[in-house]
PQQ-binding-like beta-propeller repeat protein
Amino acid sequence: MEALRQDDPRRFGPYTVVARFRETASAVQYLAHDAALDDTVVITAARPELAALPAFRRRFEAETRTADRLAGGWVQPQIVTRTAEHPDEDADGPADGRLWTAATYVPALTLADAIDFTGPLPERAVRILGAGIAETLSRVHATGAVLEGLAPRTVLLAEDGPRLTAFGPLGAAADAEARPGGQLSVRLGYLTPEQVEGKEAGPASDLFVLGLLLAYAATGTTPLADGPAAEAAERIARTEPELDAVPEELRGLIARCLAKDPADRPTAGTVAAELALEGAAGLAKGGWLPEPLSRLIMEQAGHVRKLAADADDGPADSATGTPVDSPTHSLLGPLDHDSADAAPDGPADARPDTPATRDDDVRTTRIGSVGSPRAPEPDRPTTQLSIPRERSGPPAELPTGLPPVAPLVPRPLPAPTTPAAPAPAAPASTAPATTPTAPPSSPPPAGPANAPAPGPAAPSLDRRTLLVGGVAGAAGLVVGGGAVLAFKSSGSEDQDDAKPAPAPTRPTVAGLPPQPRWVYTHPDAEPAPLTAALWLDRLLVLTGDTQATGIDLRSGHRVWECADGAKGQAALPAGEDLCFVAGPSEFLWLSARNGQVTHRVPYEDGFEGTPYLTVSDIVGQSGPVIWFTGSHKVTVKAKKPKKGKKPGKDTQAVVSFLFAYDVVQRKEVWRTSVPTGRESAAPAYRLTALRPDDIVVRQTSATLAPGDVKAAKGKAVFRCFDRESGKLLWTKSFGRVAPDGAAVGDDRGLLYAAVGDDLQSFEMPGGKPEWTLNGTAGSVFGTPVPAGTLLHTTNRNQEVGVVDRATGKLRWRRSTEAAPGGAAPAVTVSLSGKTLLAAGGAQVTAFAAADGRRLWKFQDIGVQDPKGATVTAPYRVMAFGKTAVVQRERIFYAFPVA
């Protein structure tokens, strides 16, 4: 932060400028204040010599739109934008063509300044920093775009977490200059291996740069990229990074980010989950920065408040708009007035666009030099970076409906429209693909007909090309992905340059999930769904606090809503055209076509002899028959008193039943008495085994009455009922299976249950152990899934496996690579039996059921808001046909599976 210079603007719209704040290669940031609203903002104003270029204006506006789309979470929302599209209507006189944006001031330090001041960050701070950046990257990559805005001076460290300030190559540029002929030359600070080879940046390129940033935050140096540009490019392309100084817990992840092959790098969601499973906001609670940095941020905030107060209180000079007798301040105190006043008469190179970090600029107080134990270092040499080709026409925007969380899936590049005429290439800030939830943008106008066709990209660059950056002719394209991107603007701003045809569709990268067939996001205005169920492979039926919703499984589009279905459960088929929903007070039959209620059966009077029936959860279903528990109160008459005694009082008792009910014929099949649960309510049963002649259920431990808990002696109690009559056939405990221990039975009369660290098989109802699958210490098996002759297993060490149902012989066991602990992943098998999907709290992992080969991994980081709750909902998978629907809270993805 420094005093204003003679040529600096004094106002931007309603804001009075009070100080220079930071500088970048393409813009100057000012601290400004609006006295009427008591609002302090940071103005980002494009440098005038660059703003005069049409190519720069279009790029600036594109990156501004990207920032608008990403607002929220770790991206500070912009409150004012003044660009060529939105001129400065508040300025005195006509619009002056300035490009600027305003965002609310947040006390923070750049990562570069923080490292200069205190040196490397602690491991926990690096984790939070990386997780916050990765969460934002996952949102960007969900749209098929690439951020290209990461650099030590574009990442801010605030008290509640990191902030990103650049959303494209302009914001992160190490150097930007106007060249003769209207060309714009931009050079970034970091290069990636694929860009050294002349290839365009993709989402994996952001991960490589993130790896460099994390290593820089953890060690204070940048592996591979420090030093002269040509040598750095050579190291990036061919040398493995030296990471010995990186903390051991972070070394492996950073090394994977810095893999030479983009396919070997993790996704942004993977990085976010590995660094902070609970989310950056959750891990940052209670403070995350070293005390010296926190103190410096507080001091910065105090001086900003003082500057704002001075701007409000002091009378403004009529010529400059600056308060009279109001001293400007550096970060930690007033600047020397002699130095500030002498600035206009200083050396010739002390221009307004001179970087504030120059050592010969005596007017600048660098943040790292105040109270720092070491002298500030000049900016390190930056590696010249190839930036993907950009058209000079209006860039495609990110979809308006940008999802708050990221489907981390590869986006294929579109094929050329015709083999003869090259199609326009996508801008650097977006990848040429559309989100499943948004319609594709209209293609931009074609370039001039006489534009030369581009030749193939060179496989690699020599050092001279990296240093000089050859530009290919009037079109302003980079030769072979050279060091400097040059744009040429000829004629009108609306005229497009010729562009090369996009690359053909690339194959899915191994390990990444396939592209979803559709993505459905439940509206933020509605509560998150309480239940989700598939209806006859045609509908995804969601129930919530306010309504039931039908989603077409072919397209992912909402087709109907039903307020009567609020807080319902089950959503089961009741014939070909009706969807059965069990509501809080009645059974409902909804039209599958429009969601309208066609039939109702109220609980209180719909069942003979059970007035005011209260229904608990649905236990299970087979064909048209469902099973559920319910209870009602009965009056127990007092016994006839003995002669001479007063008569007793009648009492109320709760009677509970297990019902069988046909949802197609809408009639009760049978009911049988069962023990009432805790607090005189109906017991909640879970279907454990469905067999040809009977069903086996187990009561959830939370609804067990105290007497039942005592009688069970710490063991689970299973009950078997005849399917035709409802008669109780047997009640049994098996081995040491606990009341909450995972257990499932099959149609062959076997029960598979977790016992301690092992998984055991028992014969029902005799209880004879058939086999034991030994686990490891603390493994604790989750509920297994029988499929054919196999049993698919899962445990809390985040492992899944397959055993032979008859013998218990282990065929394979694999780790999902999620962090051990917590609940065991829930296992789902595709309808073909070929794919096993494990859904846990951190990810969904797909395996080949035959041999355990890992197919892909999917993560959706969820909504991360520093001021809101972190999404911790586990993943859920529902399979139908050749599709697996993956849910995390309010977002659903339909992935193709074998």
